[in-house]
């Protein structure tokens, strides 16, 4: 009974990446366990950082770049996260790599969208 509870708890602690199959998530967890440069949850964190970064308006990104605070040390570097995702993709099976590339490509497509006009949504 205790073993079943610990198995349930262990799986509940595992990060979930929306858009990936359970098979792909299992392979990512296995990769994180077997590579000394990865820790549990690193790939999910990289996906989250990249997705948050590309959803920010262009003017915010430019303002950060101009101010010299492009990548906060406190929160992680989204460009390093994106590079990690490329590296991870090369270490995966074809099927899982395809799933991860598809997920990342949806975020990549958002990267160069224009900012909304000033005044829309409280910006400006």
In words, what does this structure look like?
- It is built from 6 helices and no strands.
- It has 124 residues and is mainly alpha-helical.
- Helix 2 (22-34) packs across helix 6 and helix 5 (78-90) runs antiparallel to helix 6 (94-108).
- The chain starts with a helix and ends in a 16-residue tail after the last helix.
- Outline type: globular
Number of strands: 0
Helix proportion range: 55-70%
Q: Tell me the β content.
A: under 5%
List keywords for this structure.
single chain, 124 residues, mainly alpha, 6 helices, 60% helix, globular, disordered N terminus
Any chance you could write out the topology, listing elements then pairs?
Elements: H1 2-12, H2 22-34, H3 42-54, H4 58-67, H5 78-90, H6 94-108
Helix pairs in contact: 2-6, 3-5, 5-6
In brief:
It contains 6 helices and no strands. It has 124 residues and is mainly alpha-helical. 16% of the residues are buried.
